[in-house]
Hints:
Layout: E1 9-12, E2 19-22, H1 33-37, H2 40-58, E3 74-75, E4 78-79, H3 87-90, H4 102-119, H5 125-135, H6 151-160, H7 183-192, H8 201-217, E5 227-231, E6 234-238, H9 241-252, E7 257-258, E8 265-269, E9 272-276, E10 280-282, E11 286-290, H10 299-315, E12 318-323, E13 326-328, E14 340-341, H11 344-356
Parallel strand pairs: 11-12
Antiparallel strand pairs: 1-2, 3-4, 5-6, 7-10, 8-9, 8-14, 10-11, 12-13
Amino acid sequence: MARPMGQRIIKICPVCGKTWTTMPSDKRTFCSRICAQHSPERTAKVRETWKLKSEKARGTPPLCACGCGTPVSWYKGRWRKYVKGHWLKANPQAIKPPPPSPSTRHKISVATRVRNLVDNPMKKPDIRAKVSRALKGRRAWHTGLTKDDHPSLLRSASWNKGKSCPQLSHPSWNKGLTKNDHPSIKRQADKIRGRQRVFTSEHCKKLSEAAARRCEEGHIQVAAKQYKIQGPYGIEHLSSSYEYQRARALTEAKYRWTKRHGLHIHYFYEGRWHIYLPDFLVDNAILEEVKANWQLQLPKTRAKLSALVQLCEYAGLTPSLYTEDGIVSLAGLELPHIETYICPSVFRRIETIRQHGVGQRLPGTRPYQA
């Protein structure tokens, strides 16, 4: 255990004004014997004399050894050899070490040979003799054969020379064909030129139905692709190509729409609660959901639309459904009755929309339609 430090005080010399820290029991009044014996003028003169004697004893400071011509400083009883930081200028080889000497290279080569002898078992005489005894009397299958006698040797010789083997090569299926003769070559050409394959609406529908069926069976999980577009309130992130097309149409019609409206609702489906957030809030008056035609037959889609209708009834908004065919009436769909729940944050958001009223369309817009 360390001994606790006693109380210390600061004293000031009445002659030279120097301060020092000492114990309260210290009876000294002056900092040194010179101040105790002489007046302040005499003390300053004595100290100046000591400084001149010290500089005279040291002599003229030498110049830096790097050749810059700067005088060096006094350090721990002697003059420095270099100005601080100039040592690397005089010793550039310190940055890049010199090559090893012949004796060092010999030691490195010996160590490498020993390491190879240890790592490679065939370098050991006993193992090499054992392998030789096991292979003694055996004849290689290609002994006495040339490249003209066996196709494998012909292929190896052709590869070693960097040439193809015309005797063994097979004619390619696309030899002489162009992109106008075969669809596979046309797809590859379009891919190289940066074009995308154009699918018909029937083909897209079949692919979507097959993907939905496989997702329901649990074979695949499709991640939503992110689309970005400049909306009236900033950059909007969309999750499908259908939403992207609808967002472009609303933007061209100069509607005020957003996906960041915060109006979500909880609905109970298949034994557990889900969260549903409609796609677009248009002019603070319409909540719109974007779906494909084939998705309208899914039970979960109908449950979402039922939750949309209940949310709009409470918020005083108009529900809307948009598909490839345009605006679809929700009255013609048989929607199930499901249990829903609205969070308090959604209540506050709805009150904000009610206070600000319905947003006004920009000048030169047409009525809300598909």
